[in-house]
Amino acid sequence: MSEQVSKVEKKRISILGCGWLGFPLAKRLLGSGITSQVKGSTTSKDKLDQFAAAGIDGYLLPLSPEDGLDASISEPFFDSDVIVISIPPRMSQNVAGNYSAQMRMVAEAIRQSPAKEIVLVSSTGVYRDLSQTAVEPDVQLPEHSAQPEMVAAENAIAALRPERTVTILRMSGLLGYNRIPGKYVQGQKDMTTGDIPVNYIHRDDAAGIIKAIIQQGIQNETFNITAPFHPTRSEVYVDSCAQFGWEAPTFKIPEQHPPFKLISGDKFSKTYHYEFKYPDPLLFHYESL
Fold it and tell me: Can you identify the CATH homologous superfamily of domain 2-176+200-230+261-279?
């Protein structure tokens, strides 16, 4: 592993979408000794001062397929060795086809850049609820997916292979800090999904895993990223409500068991060395802000 680490020392890393996950990732990378420069993009001018204070080179970079990229901003931003793409699909203005169009635009910018290693943060939301364990080969084409748009976006970035090395990370539900599962269901009655397993990942582990992959060597592979333990929704909801004194939801046994999916993280764990900080969603760290 030491040889792989030496290959990535002092590389320039650009994080496209330096937000809820990207910003703490940037700070983690700056403190790791593996990069000489971290660049972060945002669509909010107000965040640029925050970036500067943290030592991140900030770029105001909207991703509008209609308007295209401003070359005076995008070219220096993509002038890096590693590009991490962390643009949540929900930021795509809810216009059908917008997210995949964004990723095609990003892919073209990368083709014009010197960047050779790409990490795309995707989602395990691509898997259908088939009441079985979901593994990476289950979804390769949009028509196989619960979220065809997201798979189309993945494939737009994967098309950079083999000239670039592209790792696609399908993240389970990102939680931690102010993202508290009980907050979204407090006080609800007669929920019928209490018995199905959760697929979550804490933000600290998501950032730690991306850093580990950059250090240990980016590969042309797709990986599910999920906490190793999968308690039930009722356990997670009740526990997180109790932590903050919220009214817990109630549950009832449905006439028919709702469909679910259990995300397998085996491929990642067999490929990379990483010790989870929060392997159990029942022990995630939260802060009510």
Answer: NAD(P)-binding Rossmann-like Domain (3.40.50.720)
